[in-house]
Amino acid sequence: MSVLLEVSGIEGGYGGGRVLNGVTLGIDRGEILALIGRNGVGKTTLMRALIGLVPLGAGSIRLDGDEVGHDKPYSRAQKGIGYVPQGREIFGALTVAENLQVGAQANRARAAEMKEKVVGYFPVLKAKLQQKAATMSGGEQQQLAIARALISAPRILLLDEPSEGIQPSIVDLIGETLLKIAKETGIGVLLVEQDMGMVESIATRCCVMDKGRIVDTLSPAQLADEELIRQYLAL
């Protein structure tokens, strides 16, 4: 495997306050890298910095060797960074098909091909293409949010708390689908997640974040150590 996303010493925050204090990590092709930590340690800020919604004060973000750390969010999407925010943020007044069309704007050339692929990964969407997104269940909306990010054929997919508010069976389904997508396409996945069952079942590695930096990287075997995980997630 070769490094797909390389994050080196990035700093950033909001309104002059610094939240990220030198984050460094790398994600390989086909890898699902989980990111865990207590609330408020900077996980969502990191995701927003990677997609370009939080400006960098220092450091670099390289995608396939190209520096993207100061590109606009739309440019990063065009270059291959897909983002599924916490809370999904789908367009409830639009249909499923229209939500997918919005996602396809970053890579229109592959829209038709990718639409077939994403509804193949999430077949529940195929029967609901003309349904308003707001009328779908939370699990269906989450699958739509992931499909909307995937339809632009990203090279890296950022997922912020995809299990939030979703029944366990759908969490398992989403996890299995992410594994399949990473294996078949070589896409890299960065997963911020509190559901340790999901992390343990799909992550290749797991980075632990505290006070705006990565403080440890855990192997799959270490993820099964409940006492170790409890220490890292203790309030």
* Superfamily (CATH H level) name: P-loop containing nucleotide triphosphate hydrolases
What is the count of distinct domains?
A: 1
Order of helices and strands: EEEHEEHEHHHEHEHEEHH
The CATH class name reads Alpha Beta
Tell me the overall shape.
Answer: globular
Beta fraction: 25-35%
CATH topology, by name, is: Rossmann fold
Specify the biggest β-sheet.
Answer: 6 strands, mixed
CATH architect. name: 3-Layer(aba) Sandwich
Poorly predicted segments: none
Helix percentage range: 25-40%
Question: So how many helices?
Answer: 9
Q: Give the end-to-end Cα distance, rounded to a whole number of Å.
A: 36 Å
**Cα-atom radius of gyration:** 17 Å
Structural class: alpha/beta
What does this protein look like?
- The protein is built from nine helices and ten strands.
- It has helices at residues 43-51, 73-79, 96-104, 111-121, 138-150, 168-185, 196-202, 220-223, 226-233; strands at residues 3-14, 17-28, 32-36, 56-63, 66-67, 81-84, 156-160, 188-192, 205-210, 213-218.
- Strands 6-7-8-3-9-10 form a six-stranded mixed beta sheet, sandwiched between helices. A four-stranded antiparallel beta sheet has the order 2-1-4-5, with helices on one face.
- Helix 6 (168-185) links the parallel strand 7 and strand 8 (188-192).
- It is globular, with a radius of gyration of 17 Å.
- The model has no long low-confidence stretch (mean pLDDT 93).
